[in-house]
Amino acid sequence: MSRYNFREIESEWQGIWNDRGSFVASEDFKQSKYYVLEMFPYPSGRIHMGHLRCYTLGDVVARYKRAQGYNVLHPMGWDAFGLPAENAAMEKKVHPAEWTYDNISTMRVQLQAMGLSIDWKREIATCDPEYYQHEQAMFLDFMDHDLVYRKKGWVNWDPVDQTVLANEQVIDGKGWRSGAVIERRQLSQWFCRITNFSHELLLSLEDLQRWPNKVRIMQENWIGLSEGAYIDFKFSNDKLKSPLRVFTTRPDTIFGASFCALAPDHPISEQLSNTNSDLKAFIEECRKLGTSEEAIQTAEKKGIDTGLRVYHPFSDEELPVYIANFVLMGYGTGAIFGCPAHDQRDLEFARAYGLPVRPVVVPQNTNPKEFCIQEEAFVEDGILANSEFLNGLNVPEAKKTIIQKLIGSENGESTINYRLRDWLISRQRYWGCPIPIIHCNNCGIVQVPRDDLPVTLPTDIDFTAPGNPLERHLEWKSVPCPSCEQPAERDTDTFDTFMDSSWYFARFCSPSSSNPVDAKQAEYWLPVDQYIGGIEHAILHLLYSRFFMRAMLKSGHINIKEPFQGLFTQGMVNHATYKDVNGDWVEPQNILVDEGGKVVRADTGSSVEVGRVEKMSKSKKNTVDPTDVIESYGADTARWFILSDSPPDRDMEWTNSGVQGAFRFINRVARLVSDCQSSLPKPNLPPNEKFSEEENKLRQITHKTIAGVTEDYERFHFNRSVARLYELTNAISAYEIEESDVKHSWVKREALETLILLLNPMTPHLAEEMWKQLGHKVLLVDTRWPTADRSLAIDDVITIAIQVNGKLRGKLDIKAGTKEIKVQEAARDVTNVSSTISDRPIKKVVFVKDKLVNFVV
RNA sequence: GCGGGCGUGGCGGAAUUGGUAGACGCGCGGGAUUCAAAAUCCCGUUCUGGUAACAGAGUGAGAGUUCGAUUCUCUCCGCCCGCACCA
User: Can you tell me the distance from the alpha carbon of A712 to that of A110, in angstroms, rounded to the nearest whole number?
Assistant: First the structure.
């Protein structure tokens, strides 16, 4: 018997599916659609295990839904702009475009070798002007609808690389590439007005029932709603006319106020610093501290008295105004009132600067005169005291009352504040989508006329100097102003690459439309029914995409709010780590277990210490290349292994023995089919009229497996499907018949065909090949999902558990549905049961139909 | 500090609404086949005692509810993730 030749078989079927266009989505809008999407990859050069896992999961869903008769859209593209291309350009002297497109070609081949059911006709790359021209047009549309704007903002500036860095690129206050200490700089930048939708983005999370709870909670916290009030404090000094507005969630504690504090970046702080060098020095100090998270954590509460005084809104008391390092300009109004008794930070600050600590909320049944604040502020609910008209109220009541008072006296109002900030989208980078704006000395900010789009990147660029090459490219940069025709300059920034990935799923619906999206197509396909990707995008990408849909709706591009109906976040792929005697990491391929069971290096034979199982990473050298696995064992083996054992949302451990186990299974199924091929009846024959008991047993397992696997597929429990399919395979192997017994073989064929149909989404090449070997002319890819015969999926003989005092003492095989009295009688006769009960009186009998009997003695 | 999650054999993990804990796989042990090996097949495999039938213990620890708890409630311990001077 020849061995299952996965190399030939897999590439053969990939060719056939491709030639027949098996996975091209139909444009027949009358069919029910199903849009499956995995987060598109960054073309780094090679696919990794994370890709293998993600795209396998998505492919199982896509093939399963296709078999169920849905019109499935399952596209693929490339998140092709980004920094690594520029780094490659600097290090290897390759043009970013060339590097990117080379990587795309390599990775496309690698993905295709996995046998994914992708509609490659819809492939897009975000670095293609064909794609990003629409992004530029939408940016201008957003601008017209006041959804983007330009403002001065504080950014992380790397003085060596001369560029802005994202927060996550700043590690311990230093640039991730240059290692230079990051400065905070104010630059004019473009922002998306995502905060326009704060409330809407928060509320709609309710509707995303098919998202993981965890992700919804993370977004909820990120948007960070807090209810409170603005309170206005009038200055007692005459210099400043308009009052100081602060935000607070505890307006009820206003009578405990002992100071006000401004953020170092607050306009008043800046104004004062112009004439006061002490203040100026303090503000500078705060700014340096600003970038390192560690520094923020350990920093003491520090402040400086501005000399300004404000009146308490309900008494004539004067409060000092400080500039304090712990007040943030980006939250609320950038100014607070300090109530040391009921806020830990304010307390620390008050202790440092000798400010009064006045409790105004005391625990229930406590005498206010005896209540004293020591090292910890009292932040719980309690009863108001020392607060005039608020005395005796609890905290929620006091909040309501004081807000009414504030409104009445025009000293404030109730408000809702969000943590979410507007999205800074300018990047001082070359390899990104150019911002279609021209800066003119006469006309200011001018849009590039739509007819002149796309603004494409220049190809002749110089990467020898640090900074943004677009900035230095005078020829590209200089253009006449579209409005006054005087010499002007292009915006030399490019978009954050999160812009590119915020709408690609919509472009897939009509990848060659002359508009960003074809409304009809988009409304048929969207929202994405099942989106799959890593948890690391829980906030940014998913929130930006949700914003983008709303912005596209507002600017008339689309009629969809939520892009992703269902979301699944897959776990990481981990691997054991190995360290040799020198303390160097060793690659898994270089590991051997010798005869004595000792783990050694394959090359030197020296002993190796097996370390923790950790996320695959280059630095720890514990990576395994999926392409190597596919070449040695085949795509089906790789897919089957990745789906076995671990639930898809949890981290999984990649092991060689696991891969070999999967390989064994693939070969076992192939053998099972080829061994009995000749003895099976022809396909599509009607069933026997009567089945023997043995036949019925196998049929029962077959139909139970259909029901179980279908349910598991719906719930992403692929590891359970794998277990069930092993069980079915074991049952088929154990079902022994005479070679010539064609009648009995009908049941065997039914079982085998079921196995293959159910395996199809997971190991499509094997399944397709076996289907053909069983004599089918119609391809498996065009064959419908089986339905379970419910009457067969139910057992007629059931094993009932017999307990005495809740402890299992025996089992009883009995017909399903047997009445309690009969079961009891039979149960009493079971040897261990009768001896355990002996002559003790039975107090009570618990009976659960078809499950158990419990005698309480 | 705040928010969320997870603790089950040697390992990954199963276990509908509370109802036979350990499915399935890996590993390990034994056997068959083979001149031998690989591959394959069969049997066993939670722990303790016992040749066995069987008995006792057992789902991080402790308590509670219940005829019955991996599942529900409370307290504690450990690990993981997210956010973090957010007023």
Answer: 29
**In the structure, how far is the CA atom of residue A326 from the C1' atom of nucleotide B1, in angstroms?**
16
Q: Name the residue closest to B68, CA to C1'.
A: A806
Inter-residue contact A197 to A154 (CB < 8 Å): no
Residue range A438-497, pLDDT digits in tens: 999 999 999 999 999 999 999 999 888 888 899 999 999 999 999 999 999 999 999 999
Q: How many CB atoms within 10 Å of residue A77?
A: 24
Nearest Cα to Cα of residue A55 among A116, A10, A122: A116
Report residue A1's pLDDT band, with 50, 70 and 90 as the boundaries. Answer: very low
Share of chain A above pLDDT 70, in %: 96
User: How many angstroms separate the Cα of A572 from the Cα of each of A541, A608, A624, A654?
Assistant: 18, 25, 13, 10
E strand intervals along A130-197: 148-158, 163-165, 170-171, 174-175, 183-192
Going from the C-alpha of A228 to that of each of A202, A208, A257, A385, A417, the distances in angstroms are: 17, 28, 16, 20, 7
Q: Which nucleotide is nearest to A222 (CA to C1')?
A: B83
Looking at this predicted complex, what is its ipTM? 0.95
Strand partners of residue A259: A338
Provide the CA A427 to C1' B17 distance, Å, integer. Answer: 54
End-to-end alpha carbon distance in chain A: 62
Environment class of A811 (CB within 10 Å of its CB; exposed 0-12, middle 13-18, buried 19+): middle
Residue A111 confidence class, pLDDT cut points 50, 70, 90: very high
CA of A188 to C1' of B33 (A): 79
Q: CA A212, C1' B72: Å apart?
A: 23
- Nucleotide with C1' nearest the A296 CA: B85
Provide the positions of strand B that have an atom within 7 A of a protein CB.
Answer: 3-5, 11-15, 19-21, 23-27, 39-42, 54-56, 67-69, 81-87
Q: What integer pLDDT is reported at residue A162 of this predicted model? A: 79
**C-alpha distances in Å from residue A507, one per residue of A188, A500, A563, A762:** 30, 11, 12, 28
Q: Which pLDDT score, from 0 to 100, does residue A442 have?
A: 94
Shortest-distance nucleotide from A662 CA to C1' = B25
Find the Å distance, CA of residue A805 to C1' of nucleotide B64: 19
Distance A737 CA to B22 C1' (A): 32
What pLDDT is stored for residue A794 in this prediction? Answer: 74
CB proximity list for A114: less than 8 A, separation 6 or greater: A52, A55, A56, A59, A626, A630, A635, A638, A639
Tokens 């600003």 belong to residue = A290
Residue A627 has phi, psi (to 5 degrees) of: -65, -35
* C1' of nucleotide B66: residue with nearest CA: A806
Here the tokens at position A215 are 């992700």
Sorted by sequence, the CB contacts under 8 Å of residue A773 that are 6+ apart come out as A673, A674, A677
Output the CA angle A9-A15-A21, nearest 5 degrees: 135
H or E element: which one contains A808?
strand A807-815
Residue A811: nearest nucleotide (C-alpha to C1'): B20
Residue pLDDT, tens place only, A716-749: 999 999 999 999 999 999 887 655 566 668 999 9
Local structure of residue A681 (DSSP, 8 states):
P
Residue A857 one-letter amino acid: V
Give the range among A235-244, A261-270, A430-439 with minimum mean pLDDT.
A235-244
Q: pLDDT tens, A780-821?
A: 999 999 999 988 877 778 888 888 888 888 888 888 888 888
- C-alpha distances out from residue A837 to A42, A805, A814, A841, A854, Å: 68, 9, 21, 8, 11
Q: Are the CB atoms for A703 and A793 separated by under 8 Å?
A: yes
